[in-house]
Write a structure and sequence with these properties.
It is built from 5 helices and 5 strands. By secondary structure, the chain is α+β, with helices and mostly antiparallel strands. It has a 3-stranded antiparallel β-sheet. It has a two-stranded antiparallel ribbon with strand order 2-3. The chain starts with 20 loop residues before the first strand and ends with a strand.
């Protein structure tokens, strides 16, 4: 047995292999999101988020959501998009990638339209997403596992 190092081709390693994850990550500065919320409010939210997501994000009494939370959700959408790897011809609108809250408040991925088609085409099944924010930045990591095709 040799101790030769294993090599991988970056994000291409394992493509097409069932059970091998695809991972995406993103870092989002909070300040531009806070500015967009202050200047455009609901118009900004409707351009980026599906109605269900806006409901998840909206504070009691209909107050604008915290910029940190919105930046985290946007970073999660970017991370999911990186996992999907759309071509230049694939138009994925932001509301097609939904980051919803589960029963415990943790983020989960729901896809519609072109985003769902890309996931099916790549054989991506189970998704996991995590977000965090600190020091004026929000970050997210998304992971999807390739499922066996029927």
């Amino acid at each position: 047995m040799t101790n030769a190092p294993m090599t991988a081709r970056g994000t291409e390693a394992g493509d097409g292999v069932v059970g091998v994850p695809r991972v995406g990550c993103d870092l989002q500065e909070v300040a531009p999101v806070a500015e967009a919320l202050a200047q455009r409010g609901q118009r900004y939210l409707r351009a980026v988020f599906a109605p269900e997501e806006i409901t998840d994000l909206t504070r009691p009494e209909g107050r604008m959501p915290a910029a940190e939370s919105v930046a985290g959700r946007f970073a999660a959408k970017e991370a999911v998009l990186k996992v999907l790897r759309p071509s230049a011809d694939d138009a994925v609108a932001w509301p097609q990638i939904m980051i919803r809250s589960d029963a415990h408040g943790a983020p989960r991925v729901e896809l519609r339209g072109t985003a769902a088609s890309l996931a099916r085409g790549a054989g991506l099944g189970a998704w996991s997403v995590s977000t965090s924010h600190d020091g004026g930045f929000a970050m997210a990591v998304a992971l999807a596992i390739r499922s066996p095709r029927p």
